[in-house]
Amino acid sequence: xxxxxxxxxxxxxxxxxxxxxxxxxxxxxxxxxxxxxxxxxxxxxxxxxxxxxxxxxxxxxxxxxxxxxxxxxxxxxxxxxxxxxxxxxxxxxxxxxxxxxxxxxxxxxxxxxxxxxxxxxxxxxxxxxxxxxxxxxxxxxxxxxxxxxxxxxxxxxxxxxxxxxxxxxxxxxxxxxxxxxxxxxxxxxxxxxxxxxxxxxxxxxxxxxxxxxxxxxxxxxxxxxxxxxxxxxxxxxxxxxxxxxxxxxxxxxxxxxxxxxxxx
Amino acid sequence: xxxxxxxxxxxxxxxxxxxxxxxxxxxxxxxxxxxxxxxxxxxxxxxxxxxxxxxxxxxxxxxxxxxxxxxxxxxxxxxxxxxxxxxxxxxxxxxxxxxxxxxxxxxxxxxxxxxxxxxxxxxxxxxxxxxxxxxxxxxxxxxxxxxxxxxxxxxxxxxxxxxxxxxxxxxxxxxxxxxxxxxxxxxxxxxxxxxxxxxxxxxxxxxxxxxxxxxxxxxxxxxxxxxxxxxxxxxxxxxxxxxxxxxxxxxxxxxxxxxxxxxxxxxxxxxxxxxxxxxxxxxxxxxxxxxxxxxxxxxxxxxxxxxxxxxxxxxxxxxxxxxxxxxxxxxxxxxxxxxxxxxxxxxxxxxxxxxxxxxxxxxxxxxxxxxxxxxxxxxxxxxxxxxxxxxxxxxxxxxxxxxxxxxxxxxxxxxxxxxxxxxxxxxxxxxxxxxxxxxxxxxxxxxxxxxxxxxxxxxxxxxxxxxxxxxxxxxxxxxxxxxxxxxxxxxxxxxxxxxxxxxxxxxxxxxxxxxxxxxxxxxxxxxxxxxxxxxxxxxxxxxxxxxxxxxxxxxxxxxxxxxxxxxxxxxxxxxxxxxxxxxxxxxxxxxxxxxxxxxxxxxxxx
Lengths: 264, 606
Known about the structure:
heterodimer, A: alpha+beta, Ubiquitin-like (UB roll), Fumarate Reductase Iron-sulfur Protein, Chain B, domain 2, five-stranded mixed sheet, 10 helices, disordered N terminus, disordered C terminus, B: FAD/NAD(P)-binding domain, seven-stranded mixed sheet, 35% helix, globular
């Protein structure tokens, strides 16, 4: 093999280091590191090199190193990115690269954010409820054209970068009233599932707070899977909420047709 | 102060260690049977290495070719495993995987479809018919996400980012486990009626691997030190196609699905070298010409498979041979070409992006290669452990009461070589069985207090790296171990090299006793590496000793000094256990006898 050991250019990094132990609430500062960068390296490689050579106790969360698991989410030069999918040659040669944890969530330590809130939100969403199998052999049928649009949503690797960038969470801290783009997209995937029987539209309006989203598309822009979260998931869900709750004709019809049952 | 005060203590009926496909399926099953289930995982939920599985899950549903059925799948699995598989597991797996796939669909999974709306199945190495249910090339993600989203509503308690360092026993029985959390380094103790190991593989013992940092053989080691038997440890699968360039992504998997969709392997001379060497037992199943191979890829039922879709052990060795003979690519691999299908297909680039989206993405982003127009450079990468905890084929119980194992950490289903696609179905079939039988065991036997004396030993062991101011560096020892395993117990093995490896591992074990770690217990990767290293050393010793003891070549175990299969080699499995003196013992055990009916199935499908 032809890995070369010739001297590699050094690059500078400002990495967020928390002070004290985990109870200090993530307070910290950037610390400057320098390390050699070889061909094809991504930012995560540099973080690992710094960890191995200079800072054994530098905390970073990672796993697959191929953009498939969504563990190594962070903010690189202020942008939410995956550390493992950000190539060093995407920066200009003398640029200092700053790396910090996702800021929308509490910091556990150094580059590691506490993302547990996201898991709690997901548990609140009504799970998939299958209709009875339609085919004579007792199995389901779905046409490929019908599954393609939800397969886009199911590419999600749950890196939570879309949650990190969303101003409703980041700036307005609506953690109790707003599920965030990841979970609107998750809900859209269930609502558009050809085999699903449950109704999550009232929940989207009342509990999940989809109305707070003003479709700035920041989530779409940071998605490493290039899922068109706003156009293909959030807007269709907003339309369904509007049809259900704000369309005057529909409201009238519902009013008329619900009255008998309401009087029963 | 009691030693118990050092721990946060939890109690479950069933404790599952690992939250990949097997662990989650076991947890769901045990929960559905009324057990109170805890799941401990080293990463966040949904990040386990199962997400990296790409090609699909093998299940003889016959939606694409109705000649497929469980008997053919069983015969394919046994042939691929060179007949040292556990036939009970191979039979159950072939029979039950279609139901497990359909069940996943009923939990919300969205597989690619046939024209008439059924689950689409694709070709893969060693499978006679198109058999892999799939979602593009991200089937593992679909599987784990479906299990995760279904599982969290089944009532299980999930302990994320925690590592188990030891099982607890009461007499002969396993009654719990202890571990630490990465965030704070606090100690945790789980009491459990039964424990299911679902910890996956061991790839991190090698330098070039498709495995993430989690693949350190924890379950293999936990079981071994708790007195359970390991078997088939000589069989380590080297996947033929990992990325080779740039260096930082070396080893990352390139799915066999590329070849399933028509990808061909070429050497530096442009020769399609896989046609040059077809093994005897597959001669009746391989295309005579490239043209016939392409017809097979397109679904022609009368065509035979292209030689790129031979089993992984063989393809990996052929690639290795080309590289060693100087016919490799510039970065020490060979070429994998899917772009060539343009010659046969109008919308080839669109087709490739649709069928292999994450491969397209991976090469584009990480290597700057457009696979719809350019060739990929690929080479073998340590991928999968066929060997593992010896289990009962039906119940997945180990040789220690109360301890179960499922998925990659368990041995038996795959024999000497696993077929692609048989892993995801393995996880589901035997994850479910492990959960079922572990729950039953817990119900029947209830809880028992762990022997207190062992706790003090465990605490001393895990804190030991902090006890000295200076000593061996855990990262360096790990790299030395990876080098010796890669270079001495790799794809091609010889007696002399493996003896060197055994001696080197013994030396590393000695030096491991002097490992020193600076700092504190919070998110200290040096400390974590030191603790993982204990597992990797155990596993590596088992691999090297087993590989030395099998003096023939079979499946993934290839010895240059005895390159042929022997008749005797098909009659035994190698079993490793910890002796009373603490030393590793190895012995032969006869291969499990097969029912006559199964024997006939194999004959019919020759």
